[in-house]
Amino acid sequence: MTSALNDIEPADIHLLTGMLDTMTDHVFLLRIEAGRYRLVYCNQAMERFMNQSDTLLCGLFLDDIVSDSVLYGKIAGNYQRAIAAGHVICYEESTEGFDSAPVTIFETSVSPLRGRDGSSVYICGISRDITARRDAETALQKTNEKLAQQLAENHRLHEKLHEEAMRDPLTNLFNRRYFLESLSRELNRAQREQHSVTLMMLDIDYFKSLNDEYGHAVGDQVLIEFSQRLLEGMRKADVVCRWGGEEFLIMMPGLSQEDAYKRMIQWREANSPMVFRVADQSVSIRFSSGLATAPENGASSDELINATDRALYLAKAAGRDQVQLFG
């Protein structure tokens, strides 16, 4: 605890109080009397804030000034902490519970002092109004939270646009651009790891006639349903693409031409003819397909796609509704 207060010439007291009255911080001094805290001094900033004159405020006990028992308990508790510590302590407090005015937040430092008699104990304190700072920090936090939400939304929209850029808008299959990028990467990986990459190109037979007979709305629905069944029949590792119109292209990494052919035959047996119920109408389709495999039928993307297209041409030329291998 700080040592006894030094003697001050009475003629100089007005200089000390005058100096303290120039401060915007609240300065106060309380004396402990029988477990109560009597206010013996406060500067003009504190007087103005408390809306009291010096004659009414000074001399009162803290529990007379602060009638709210909860708030008084908090204030007195901090004074007890300072006395127990024997040195300055700092904390934040507010006027919540003091009056109906808007809450003010203070940053307060209090220190225990002993009087000249060595037995009197005082609490000397300085409180700085930090409400504006807290309001600014709260506003900044809200702004940062709002900015974080906006960034998250922008990220979500970016991801959505990125996803849409990879997808066919009608069938939601991957589009040609994404397929070509994926094929290029997969062929490079296959060359390093020495494994096969097989492509399969499918074409719905006589799709133009279907559109002419039932209308484009029905034709679009058939494309959507066909795409879904095609996806369900492929592996997760396979990349299924709407190549254009009624043509579809599937990349099957790590699958030899023989294994891909067996899988396609099994899928055809279960799905050809493929029957749909569209707009209260029963629509039946068949499809042709061609297979080609890297590196045997082509090492580059263009070579492999051309070989697969050639195999599809052979299937159509042979009467459609079948699968043909390149070569």
UniProtKB/TrEMBL annotation:
Residues annotated as domain PAC: 89-142
InterPro entries: Diguanylate_Cyclase (IPR050469), GGDEF_dom (IPR000160), Nucleotide_cyclase (IPR029787), PAS (IPR000014), PAS-assoc_C (IPR000700), PAS-like_dom_sf (IPR035965), PAS_4 (IPR013656), Rev_trsase/Diguanyl_cyclase (IPR043128)
Database matches in Pfam families: GGDEF (PF00990), PAS_4 (PF08448)
Enzyme class: transferase
Catalyzed reaction equations: 2 GTP = 3',3'-c-di-GMP + 2 diphosphate
Record-level Gene Ontology MF annotations: diguanylate cyclase activity; kinase activity
Cofactor(s) this protein requires: Mg(2+)
UniProt domain GGDEF: residue ranges: 195-327
One GO cellular component term noted in the UniProt record for this chain: plasma membrane
Classification via CDD domains: GGDEF
GO biological process: cell adhesion involved in single-species biofilm formation; negative regulation of bacterial-type flagellum-dependent cell motility
Key word Kinase present: yes
Residue runs in coiled coils: 133-200
EC number annotated for this UniProt entry: 2.7.7.65
Protein name: diguanylate cyclase
Organism: Marinobacter maroccanus
